[in-house]
Amino acid sequence: MESRNPVFNRSEGFSRGGNATFRDVPTPTPGSLEEMYRRPSAGPVQTGRMTIDDAVMKTLACFGVLLVGAAFAWFVAPGLAFVGMIVGLVLGLVISFKQSTNPALILSYAAAEGLFVGGISAVFNDQWPGIVSQAVIGTLAAFGAMLALYKTKVLRATPKFMKVLTIAGLAYFGVALASLVGALFGVGDGWGFYGIGGLGVLLCVAGVALAAFFLVLDFDFVEQGVRNGLPERYSWLAAFGLMATVVWLYVELLRLLAILRGND
Known about the structure:
By secondary structure, the chain is an all-alpha fold. The protein has two domains: 1-41, no CATH class; 51-260, no CATH class. Helices cover 70% and strands 0% of the residues. The chain contains nine helices and no strands. The chain crosses the membrane at residues 55-74, 80-97, 104-124, 130-150, 162-185, 191-222, 234-251.
């Protein structure tokens, strides 16, 4: 393999197909040895490792694509929300199970999620004007709060925390799936379990809390990835995880606000 060490990557002996040779190599002087010693060691960028900046920039790129898709669905074709939901679900499962770091695949997921978010937001906002801005503010506030709690070490992704959160997440998604089936048969006036009085509010609050806590796992993935020296391409997977969790959080908040304003 071609070396990424800046000391070696310009040397024929360490390049692809190069041959090491010691002919015509001048004897290093004390001054040149001291200069080599003083040179800074290769950082994450030079060695192709993942950095916090990589994760931030990839996440911003994903949300940029998501916002474009959301704007298109909001202003042009809200009906594409269903298409976006199905395509996003399929792509999300593929990325998750394959742990794919393919930028095209992850940006396609972002576009699909944009269509889904923009479409349902338009529908909800027509029914309850102003609800989308409330959900966006709530999502940003929750994200900021969880990041602050994580950075101050109030919340940490300990093995016990991860185990409890994973079990709770699986249980919640099981209930959500059963609710979806019930909604198809008219349970809760088409809202499934979420439309059954106080039960629906409790389920939504649980969903918001779970999505917020899952952000801690995403923050930990980024931090551990940087610490462990993961290749730079894994910043795309980190961006995917953050985006998926934020969209989940937003949808849960949107549904909770809709239920609370249901009698308006």
